[in-house]
Specification:
The chain is 16% helix and 45% strand. By secondary structure, the chain is α+β, with helices and mostly antiparallel strands. It has one domain: 2-Layer Sandwich (60s Ribosomal Protein L30, Chain: A). β5 and β6 form a beta hairpin. The protein starts with a helix and ends in a 15-residue tail after the last strand.
Length: 182
């Protein structure tokens, strides 16, 4: 009888769906002088680069594909150095993303992962700088929306379509996501 109860309990636990997990990570550089430095008057409040759209690339992902991994592979395959992410549609079977969790430097990142939460992709934006993707995604889950930086393990459900506006290679976007450039 005890063996039956143990086996039943184990079987019931294995059938439980995965739960949403959250973890916080400090985004400190390890150098307190950089992490806490004040804004420099030599760094403008805002700056711009100008370029031209060379082409539009539309990516289509199938069921089960990893959204971030596929985006990174296509950046290499399509030889994309600089681009803007114009949008995305589709759905996912599960997701992982991160967002900022505090208001002072150094930043703290909150990672949220739910491998069993289906969601519609409401949108995606972001940039590709020197071949490196910095995508943000918005998902609709039931009666709420959630968004943040796209992470690996966000798997496609029905399909996903991501549209990229490829910019000329001559522009310099290297400082666009450098939080120490302040």
């Amino acid at each position: 009888m005890k063996m039956f109860l143990v086996v039943s309990l184990l079987a019931a636990c294995m059938a439980l769906p995965a739960q949403e997990t959250r973890r916080e990570v400090s985004h400190a550089t390890g150098n307190p002088a950089v992490d806490s430095k004040p804004n420099s008057p030599d760094v403008p409040d805002v700056f711009a680069v100008s370029g031209h759209l060379e082409r539009i690339v539309v990516l289509r992902f199938k069921f089960g594909a990893d959204l971030l991994g596929g985006l990174q592979r296509m950046i290499v395959q399509e030889k994309i150095k600089n681009a803007v992410i114009l949008g995305a549609v589709g759905s996912v079977r599960g997701y992982q993303l991160h967002m900022v969790e505090n208001r002072d430097m150094p930043s703290k990142l909150l990672f949220i992962k739910d491998p069993t939460a289906p969601a519609d992709i409401i949108g995606m934006s972001g940039i590709i700088m020197n071949g490196r993707a910095h995508p943000h995604i918005t998902l609709a889950i039931g009666d709420k929306a959630i968004g943040g930086h796209l992470e690996a393990d966000t798997t496609v459900f029905t399909f996903a379509v991501v549209t990229l506006g490829v910019l000329d290679d001559s522009i310099d976007m290297s400082r666009f996501d450098d939080s120490s450039y302040r």
